[in-house]
Amino acid sequence: MAVTTFEALSRDDVTTTRTLLHExxxxxxxxxxxxxxxTNVKNYTHGQFQSLYDYPFLSSSANHIFDVTLGYDxxxxxxxxxxxxxxxxxxxxxxQFSQVLLGYTGSKNTVRKFxxxxxxxxxxxxxxxxxxxxxxxxxxxxxxxxxxxxTVGTGSHTYxxxxxxxLTDSDASATGGTTNTLGGDYGVLKDSDSVARGIxxxxxxxxxxxTSSFDNVADFHVSPADGTMNIADMFVSASITASCxxxxxxxxxxxxxxxxxxxxxxxxxxxxANNYNHSSNPTYLSASKIRVKDVASDTxxxxxxxxxxxxxxxxxxxxxKLSEPLKKDPTNQLTxxxxxxx
Length: 342
Hints:
Layout lengths: L13 E15 H5 L7 E3 L6 E4 L10 E9 L14 H15 L26 E6 L2 H4 L2 E2 L5 E5 L10 E5 L10 E3 L2 E7 L5 E6 L4 E5 L10 E3 L3 E3 L1 H7 L2 H9 L2 E21 L13 E2 L2 E2 L11 E9 L5 E13 L5 E8 L1
Antiparallel strand pairs: 1-15, 2-3, 3-4, 4-5, 5-12, 6-15, 7-8, 7-15, 9-10, 10-11, 11-12, 13-14, 15-20, 16-17, 18-19
């Protein structure tokens, strides 16, 4: 027999919840700086950034991990240097990210500058930076505040590096230590001496590393074509691609927890005692007799296996299956909890 009655859901029968799932993401320097002899590094003819994959990028199983680029502000001491290579591209790259992540100042109507604090007062300005946008594949909805860590080599650029510096956002958390901007919340990356060396935008999944971590490195960039350069010379005289290679070969480890937000609507489906005691399954009856009854005088009994959620015009919108059949007869009533995730 087909069911022709429905149980209406009131406002008290419906509620919503939000759940955050976290996943630990470790990116070791061996993948970043040499495991695949740079076949997992994709460079482009425009030369404005490079992309890193977890396998050789021509492989069908390769996943995009992050990009690397750099830039500096027009107010930087590097701006206008004699013989500067690709200066306009480097300045435009800095401005592009600052415009998207920070927006414009209210008084001057100019693009905000990145800062190594949370004040947005253009005092502790980071005028030169490496920029690392992480793939949405690994950041999901956001990087969890307080979990980001990046370790870089600050001596010879031979892995695993005799001298390293670890930058973390340990001051940040879900309740403080961050500042909200146009591009979402960001936290400050500090070294073991609590000196600010960069920032990380959590929802955007972008980390910016100040060049100050490498101020004392004489041979930050070494290649047969360009010779030995410190960080300032490299920012001015080397191409963006070559500079990205230099940073990438100094990455020892990157770790963080990502966050996935799951929104749920929960329906409490109530089954009254006197309803749904007969099954709609055709096999429920045999010769007009209820199969599951041993004695004719016994009360009717059914087993609930499926719940259907219907629109107001009785259109079936969703179906939920129970893990096991639930016995239903006139002596009991049930409340079944159905959750829809999205």
